[in-house]
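Why should sequence recovery work at all? Because a backbone constrains its sequence more than one might expect. Tight turns favour small or flexible residues, buried strands favour hydrophobic ones, and helices have their own preferences. The token representation captures these environments compactly. In the example below, the structure is given first.
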């Protein structure tokens, strides 16, 4: 399995921003209940965590998603405007996962799969769309920088779990 991370392009980021805009617009015009936004938040945060995975299925999916968005976005934008749009965006990383943080990310991905299986069709689309947007946008320097506290939170949560299970409270 190739786990190479792909840098996001401006066109790929436009695809991700479009996905989030569609979801947030539906939420904004639909009553703005927090419960209606949870699927989008869950997908985006899981996508963000996937960008910290340097290998495995999550890292591979993050790279493939960026590559697909870059290719598709470039074709669509060039087709609509006639301008080239494949320039890369500065890549960034939110940080590294510890062993304990990796366990937390694994459990979050398990929860995502269970949520997906139980969700209605529209919520499944929101979940996958937000996951893709997280994979794409959180690989850029700006968004990764804005979320730079997330790895520390995940790693600390995992360490707390390890200590609780090991009897060290």
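From this structural description, the recovered sequence reads:
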């Amino acid at each position: 399995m190739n786990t190479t991370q792909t840098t996001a392009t401006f066109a790929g980021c436009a695809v991700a921003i479009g996905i989030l805009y569609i979801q947030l617009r539906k939420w904004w015009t639909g009553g703005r209940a927090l419960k209606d936004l949870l699927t989008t938040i869950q997908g985006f945060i899981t996508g963000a965590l996937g960008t910290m995975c340097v290998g495995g299925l999550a890292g591979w999916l993050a790279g493939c998603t960026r590559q697909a968005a870059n290719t598709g976005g470039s074709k669509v934008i060039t087709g609509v405007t006639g301008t080239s749009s494949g320039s890369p965006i500065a890549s960034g990383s939110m940080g590294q996962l510890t062993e304990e943080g990796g366990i937390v990310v694994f459990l979050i991905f398990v929860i995502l799969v269970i949520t997906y299986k139980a969700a209605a069709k529209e919520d499944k689309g929101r979940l996958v769309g937000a996951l893709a947007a997280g994979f794409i946008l959180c690989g850029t320097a700006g968004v990764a920088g804005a979320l730079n506290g997330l790895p520390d939170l995940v790693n600390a949560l995992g360490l707390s779990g390890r200590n609780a299970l090991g009897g060290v409270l």
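A few observations help interpret the result. The longest helix spans residues 56-81.
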